[in-house]
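Section 5.1 Outputs to date
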Amino acid sequence: MKYYKNTLLVLFSLVSGLMFSQIEPLDAELTNYRYPFDVHFLSLDSQNNHLKMAYMDVKPKNANGKAVMLLHGKNFNGAYWEKTATDLSAKGFRVIIPDQIGFGKSSKPQNYQFSFSQLAYNTKAILDELKINRIIVLGHSMGGMVATRFSLLYPERVEKLILENPIGLEDYKTFASYQTIDQAYQSELKNTAESYKNYQLKFYYDNKWKVEYQPWLDLIAGWTLHPDYPKVAWDAALTSDMIYNQPVCYEFKNIKVPTLLIIGTRDRTAIGKDRAPKELQPKMGQYQELGKKTQQQIAGSQLVELENVGHLPHIEVHDQFWKALYGFIK
């Protein structure tokens, strides 16, 4: 029996190692990674940096005159919106999908004061370039915090707001101790394909892995295998500090645009949970409660709860997500 168990363990390790060995190294700006739609770049002179901000502009065959902007989360980039953008385009919507500065194919500045206001301003610059005056804004995870700040700064540009399992529904500073950027950087440098997968399994997918999740793991895992990874890790540390120190939850009451919350209730994502006292950790990231609380704060908002769904409804249960989204924007 002992021999049998050891054999299984060796086989599992070989299979696991083979899977991760097939992940290809990716440079800081994903030069050799092909996105699902054509990528354009906007030149930005920002904070003494000459930057380029990547975005996709998906134009429908039969336009309905409306546009939707999809804002990605921290561990992602615009590519994971492929199915959502395809469905929106089929219904006549023009779809704009930015990679925020510091993410995806956009520049990775090493001296940059990241703020949600700055990211919102950069995002507006794309709409200005494309001469889009009004748009429906959908933000997922960290993109929900960007979308919230964008809607507060530029309400005249926002036709409707959709927040899909946004982080920032609570103030992480009230739970977790402070982590310096240098400490966060050292933590980011330790990431591997396996550690990223374990995190996603635990917090996103209820320890149930599906093959359709693999591409979004490969993207961030590929960075860890490339010599550019320290540049990526540094920006990841800077943006983690932004999330921790710039809560938006106190300003939900100021949102005036029509808003929909799409909440997977199984989600337990919370920034800094490992730095919080053990007795507080179970109280963090309780999305089945946070969704309801946030809806009460945003006047006139709607809430769609997706039972037993984690942090990525548009990936995990796309049909349910799409039904909620299209019902709100059609």
